[in-house]
Amino acid sequence: MAIAHGTHSYVPDAPRLVKNPFGGAPVWKLTRYDDVSAMLVDRRFVTNSHALPGGSDFYAEMLVQLGISEDVLPYLTGNLAHVGPEDHARLRKLVSRAFTARRVAKLRPQVQKITHELLDALPDRAVDGTADLIEHFAYPLSITVICDLLGVPVEDRPLWRGWSEDTASMDPKRMNTMLVDMGAYVAELAGHRLANPSNDLISALVQVNDEDSGRLSDTELITMVLTLMVAGHETTTHFIGNGIVALLTHPDQLARLRADPELMPDAVQELLRWCSPIVVTQQRFASEDITIGGALIRRGERVQAVLSAANHDPDRYANPEVLDITRRPENAGHPHLAYSHGAYYCLGAPLANQEAEAAFAAVFDRFPELALAVPQERLQWRPQEDAHQLVELPVRLGPARAAEAP
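Below the sequence we write its predicted structure tokens.
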């Protein structure tokens, strides 16, 4: 059964063994919802191969082979998604003390303000009535919000946009330069915030302390800011793009949402299930022999969860290929796995939800005749196996409706 957004297929006999594109060792690809969910909460599957007896850090070795300098390697290998269970628990506990639900909720008026300002400017960005919603809406919305959250001064934000582009390029030379420059910038800004605290996340991160977990080291702070910058806007940018395409190509669902705006929170969750930009998780490693989905995974073998397939598992969802913004999860708690599950559940999920709700509500209200400027099959997608992301999203805006006060 093909997944609706066309990136991966649901495989009824999963898990299955496929060749690892980075080497000769096999990787188990889990595609069933129950198997994926079970693996994500099983602490015996570790994110860092260095945690295995006699194991080396596969991720660090791969980055070095790609050309990443060892001087800046800790900024990439020390992120929350890669560190071992003990370090992950310690770091997440510290960051959670600073990155609170209350802080995110306070951002809502600013998110709405930024959204409306970008839509105000959109007609002037258009050429012959056509605009790119990735470049001129989704991307600047998400990067501006994360800069506001962190407390990056307005005059410095062009630097962060450039660093974001360097990160997305995956060019080792650009990455090495970016990591040095960004590390120096964050260290300087953190020092200033420590002496002169403000009401922003960097101020909170430099001050956070815990009896058991201590404080963030300088390297950990820089790594955390980099992680928040990338995860806090890259994924959100492309989810907003994917969601707009989904609604434009499902006019019945868009009409239903316009008729009942209170459906928006449920619509966002259904869109995350149906067209999340994240296709697979990073690899994990079995720390012992483990049986999952009827298959024996040997100690040291690699496992990857295909989230897009799990979110389209017919054993979990009725008619999973159908986009239905009124869908209700059969079981409470984890209606989809787009944000992962368990200890590694996305820390920024509430902020991403908030941005998506604001973006979808405002763009379809402001431009009632919004339409794709090219046929759906001509949309350009990034050539990545692990993500489903648009290169651009050309749309015809149509007449703009007067903006309501956010």
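The domain at 16-396 is CATH 1.10.630.10 (Cytochrome p450).
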